[in-house]
Every structure is written in structure tokens, then in C-alpha cells.
Amino acid sequence: MKMPLLKLQGTPREVGRQYGEACREGFRAWSESSGRMVRDERWERDVAALRASISQLYPRFWDELVGVAEGTGLSIEQVVANHRRTLSAAYLAEGCCTNIALNGPDGPVFGKNLDLSPNPEMQYVIRDVTYENGQGMIHSCVVGEVTSRDTCMNVHGLTLGGSSVGSVFQQSIHNPPIEVALYEMLCTCAEVEEAIRFLQRYPYVGKGYNLVLADAKGAAVVLEAASPLIQVRRRAEGEDAIFCTNTYKLPALLEADLRPPHGKMYSEKRWNYLQRKVWRERVPRTVEQMKALLSAYGPDGGLCRPIDPDDESKTRMSIVTLPAKREFWVADGVPAFYPYERVK
Amino acid sequence: MDLLKLKGTPRQVGRDFGEAYRDGFRFLNELAHTVASERPHWLGELPVLAEALRTYLPRFWDELVGMSEGSGLSLDDQLLNHRYGLQAEAGCTNVAFLDVPSGPIFGKNLDLQPNPVWPFIIRWVKYENGDEIVHTTWVGDIMARETCMNMHGLTVGGSSVGSVFQQSLDHPSIDASIYSMICSCRSTPEAIRFIQRHAHFGKGYNFVLVDAQGEGVVLECACPLVQVRRREPGEDAIFCTNIYKLPALLRADRRTPEGRRYSELRYDYLTRKLFEERMPRTVEQMQALLSAHGADGGLCRPINEGDYSRTRFSIVALPAERQLWLADGRPCDVPFERYI
Predict the structure, then answer these.
(1) What confidence tier does A71 reach under pLDDT thresholds 50, 70, 90?
(2) Tens digit of each residue's pLDDT (9 = 90 or more) over A75-114
(3) Per CB distance under 8 Å, which residues of B are interface residues toward A?
(4) CB within 8 Å: B248 and A256
């Protein structure tokens, strides 16, 4: 695996400092890129509002950002501005992922393809974090951010994977950012229902995601987070799988996404592929089959991007986790061509 | 309609309210128990409802405790009254003229089923911290959603809509949040920020919100979500009936087809009168709008023979002058009298 694996430990501030020091150049490049997006006063006001809500509601996350600033040599405003970038409309186009949770003979299996535009600007790392309070997680993360939305599994096996969707609803910058709330949820919760309750405490600002959330006991839902709303899509009785792509599926949210027609079409292709494989063909709920699903593409459909010649996205990495066994496997590239390696 | 003057801490105010209307509190509680017998989950929800109020809106909670003390109801029964109020149906219209030189004009018809049993009063409350509000409420709970104006002139009036979204009882009730908003905010932007702090539990409403400076919006509260509908450029009025109008919420209501039809009739009537016929923006004209019914349409219910709702009372408020006028019945039959 070419992607760096960072082992970080200590208080949030120490973890942030270590992360910042290890990825100083990446943070600076991301910050310069974010700086080019600063065009008006609103961005500055937004950064001030984010600073207030994060420091007030999520003090441990705030401490980690302070540590990042110390480690990178960036100002705290620059670090928060990096976070502000995740809220921008331009950022929406970047993600078009698939997330799946299956319950099989060996326990729950989670799978995710992280799909981006062909030449993404982002650099990724895997952070393996152990906090001083006994909490911890392993997660993929864009260098320049502290986020858990891509893929994250914590010490309890609680696992999260997100797909970008967008949200048509008005948002308030004075509400906490969804990205921070998700990270803090993974830092404090052990099970799905606890996590739902944690996340539903506030309305959020953020671009809108579907998030598969699965725990070590086999509970799994999709959080349809059409910011500021958090709604929960549950498995029908007797079902042993749940998944999401880039459009909401709850009836109340069917028109709440911001996907362009092409993005919506490829979201539906992957959704329909999973419907067929999981429910009609009833593929085995095994790790091998999860990897096969994530690696599939071509005339029969699939999840590995580009699925076909017209598909403009490309799978950047693929991750499989076993929440009950705390195993975390990564294919650092298109999973049809790159092997999965165990990193935890 | 009684005008009840109250003052003191929230707990004192609640206690005085409960003592003054002990029988009314018990009557509402009997109704609440009757409805709860068909919704057995309500009783199990009360501790969660209480915790959310205590955590997020402690002054409202204190007033609830005071009402329980004054009325002699147990705290659970007082909470059940509040729970009952969160689902009570109405079909109201709220209107605000915004760019009037002498100040904004707010109008509201409270529409219920033909024979409602709920008794209403007007409370004029002066809290120990200087907050002061006047509002209509039914006896047995605290409501600000019907009509409420505070000492700064900030005025709110609600129309029931419903919400298709999932909700969590861990959130404070929208009714309690609206009351707390009016207790503590001075202007429309401040109130919007206040109400957007939390997700909310409740059935879903449209609220006309207008301040003394004439800044007015409709809060489209499809609980737990709060969205803001602003007037279009060039418009000098804003109003709401019983369905959402923001594009993102067009299918988020829970109106019946009949309810939706009469909501649209009133909305279309206001659109025609205000933006096509451009009727004058005066108190007299506001009263005329609220009193109109018949073949040409109107807001006073029943509007026509097929309309099953009935206007219980009508209110006109002048936020800049802190005046509140009430017609205690159908405004086509009963004159508006100045209460404040």
C-alpha cells in the first residue's frame, strides 16, 4: 500500500500535532488550494461561525484542530478554513461512493468504494488513532482535514462509510458541521442506536450524505443526512444487508439530493446492481463476495469505477472491514487491479 | 375571552396560571387521557419529553412545573397536556403587511373544527427578568403558536401543516421553542437564529414571524426541520395557510386532500387580494380580509358550504405600537376589541 499509515496516540491535541507534523506539506498544499477558494467576506464569517460552534459543542475535536495548527505551522483560521471547504458546493462533485453492510456467517462485513473524479487533488492517509481516554479509530482521511466520513471503524467496531448526496435544504452556518459530529460520534459511541441518538442531537451544516453505519453486533442502518436533517433508513424485517449510493431512498427525501443527472444515473446503476446481486441473486454474505462486489465492473454492471466507458468517475480506494473482529482492509487503488491489504 | 395578567419567575407565573384555571387544566387533562388511551406510547414518552424540555428550555420547564403545582395535576399529567397539544389540529391563516409607514400589521384567524371544546384565554405575562409577552393559549398548557407578541413587538402566528420527516423525542417540542423564542428575542433575524439552534419535535407548522421594524418571514417548520420562506423582491406582505410553499417542502405536509384544498383556496385568495388587486395595507383592510367569506372566497371559516372548519377567533396585532385586537368569534359576526 502506497498510502501512508499514520499511528497516532495521546490527547486530541497531541494527536493533531503528530498528524500535522507528519503531513505538513500536504496540509499546506490543501490550505493554499482552500485559500484560492476564498472569494468573499462570507467565507471569513463562516470560519468564525465554525470556530464558535466546534469549540463550544465539540471541545475535543477543537483541541485536535489546535494541535494540527501547531504541527503544521498553519494558523487555526487556516485549519478551520480547510474544514469550511468541505461545505462548499464545488466539493460536492468530488465524491460518488458506494457503501454496503452485510451480515454473514463470520459476522458483519462492511465494504466501501471511494470514488472520485479521474484526477483528484486530494491526498489520502490512513490514520490509526488511539486517544488517551481509551477511545480510538482507524480511518481514511484527506490530508488537510480531520474527517471520518470516508471510512472509519472505532475500537468498538462501530463502522461508518459515507456517500456524497447533497441537500436541497437551507442550512445555518451557526449549526455544527456534520463532518465534526460524525467524527465525534465515532469517538464516543459503541453501537448503532447510541450513535443515531448522538447524531440526532443537532441540526447540521454540511453538504449532505448517505452513511452506512454498522456495529460489531450486526446492527446496521443508512443515515440519510440531508443536512440539516438526519433521517434513518432501516433494513426491512428479515433483511441481512443495507447499502447506499448517491441519492436518498427514504420517500420523504427522494427529491432532496443535489446530484446532476449524470451522477444520479450512475448512482442508480450501482444501486440497481446491488439490488440485483444482494436481493435477487442472493450472493453469499462473505468477505470474498464483498470484495467481488466492490471489484466488479463491465457489461454486467458493478461498483468499481469506471463501470463502463461513459462513467466519468474512478475508484480511488476500496475498504473492507470486519467490525466484530476489528479488521480493516484497504485496496489502495481500483480494487479490480489492486489487492486488499490488511492494515488493522 | 379572559385576559389573565401574570408576573414573576416562570415558576410563579405557571403556578398562578394553574391556580386561576384549575378546572380548565383538569378538563384538558381528561381530554388528553382520552386521546392517550388510543396512543398508549404517549405515556412512555413523557420522561423523554420532560428531559428534552429540562435540558434545552429550562425556563419553559420551570413554568410547566409551576402549572402542575398550581393546578394540582401531577407533573406527568401536566406533561400529558403538553403532549396532547403537540398533535392538536387546526387550520389557521396568518398574514403580515410589512411595508406600512406606521408599522407592520399582523392578522390571524384561528380555525378549528365546528364544535371545539377547548377554552382559550389571553395571557399577559411579565417575567422577573424583564421579558414580557401577550399571547392566546388554551387553558391547560402554554401555547405561543396561536398568536404571540412580545414587548419588542416581535409577533408570531402559526398554521398547522404536519411533517413527513422522522422525529426524535430527544428534541425540544417546537411549541415550547416558539414560546421561548418569543420570550427572549427582539427581531426576526435573532428569532430565526434562535429557532434554528435545535431540531424540534412536533407536528409541523407554518409561522408568520414579523418584528416591529417590519421584517417578516414564514418559518416553515417541518419538524424536526426549520426552513425560512422570505418575501419575493417587490412584495410587501407575507402569509401562510396549511401547506408549505418552499420547493424543498412541497410534499412534506400531512394535510388531507380536503384540508389541502381549503388551504389553497385561502392562499390563492390572499395572493389575488394582495398582489393582483393590491388592496390597501391598512388595519381596516386586514380586518376585512380576515372577515371575508362567500362566493368571492375569503379567510373566515366556513368559507363556503363545503367547508367543515370554523373560525374560533381572529386577531390583529400592530407590532410597532404593541397593540393587540381580538374578535372573540367569527370576525364576520363579532367586532374586534382592543385587549392590549
Answers:
(1) very high
(2) 999 999 888 887 765 565 567 899 999 999 989 999 999 9
(3) 164-166, 168, 170-171, 193, 196-199, 224-228, 247-248, 251-252
(4) yes
Q: Nearest Cβ partner of B224 from A170, A229, A255?
A: A229
Q: Using alpha carbons, select from B147, B105, B97, B154 the residue that is nearest to residue B131.
A: B154
**How do residues A153-177 score in pLDDT, each as one tens digit?**
999 999 999 999 999 999 999 999 9
> What's the half-sphere exposure (Cβ side, CA atoms, 13 Å) at A193?
3
DSSP A56-97: HH-HHHHHHHHHHHHHH---HHHHHHHHHHTTSHHHHTT---
| Residues, chain B | 340
Residue A21 parent element (H or E): helix A12-22
pLDDT at A38: 63
Q: Where would I find the H helices in chain B?
A: 10-20, 22-36, 41-56, 58-71, 75-85, 174-184, 188-195, 257-271, 283-291
Element (H, E) at A45: helix A41-57
**Mutation target vs A (from B48, B168, B249; most A CBs, 10 A cutoff):** B168
Nearest to B252 among A170, A197, A252 (CB): A252
In this predicted structure, the answer to whether residue B190 has a pLDDT above a threshold of 90 is yes
Burial of A89: CB neighbours in 10 Å, binned 0-12, 13-18, 19+: exposed
Return d(Cα A208, Cα B269) in angstroms, integer: 37
Spell out the domains of chain A, with CATH numbers in brackets. Answer: 90-342 (3.60.60.10)
A175 contact residues in B (CB cutoff 8 A): 196-197
Average pLDDT over residues A56-78: 97
Query: Under an 8 A CB cutoff, do A232 and B170 touch?
Result: no
Kindly write down the DSSP assignment for every residue of B321-339, as one continuous string. Answer: TTEEEEESS-TTTS--EE-
State whether residue A282 sits within 8 Å of chain B by CB: no
Residues paired with B230 in a beta bridge: B217
CB B52 within 8 A of CB B169: yes
Q: How far apart are CA A317 and CA A175, in angstroms?
A: 31
> Residues of B299-336 as b/e, b for ≥16 C-beta within 10 angstroms?
bbbbbeeebebbbbbbbbbbbbebbbbbbbebbbeeeb
Query: Is A45 within 8 Å of chain B by CB?
Result: no
Chain A stretch 240-279, residues whose beta carbon is closer than 8 A to a beta carbon of chain B: 251-252, 255-256
Q: What does DSSP assign to residue A142?
A: E
If DSSP codes are grouped into helix, strand and coil, which group holds residue B30? helix
Residue range B285-307: mean pLDDT, rounded = 96
Of A170, A174, A232, the CB nearest to B166: A232
Domains of chain B with CATH codes: 3-85 (no CATH), 93-338 (3.60.60.10)
Chain A with chain B: Cβ pairs closer than 8 A: 53
pLDDT at B243 over 60: yes
Q: Is residue B200 within 8 Å of B172, Cβ to Cβ?
A: yes
User: Which of B127, B177, B181, B132 shows the shortest CA–CA distance to B152?
Assistant: B132
Nearest CA in chain A to B52: A201
State the CB neighbour count (10 A cutoff) for residue B280.
11
Residue B234 C-alpha, separation from nearest chain A C-alpha, in angstroms: 22
Q: Which of A169, A171, A222 to mutate to test the interface with B (most CBs of B within 10 A)?
A: A169
Q: How far is A4 from chain B (nearest CA, A)?
A: 39
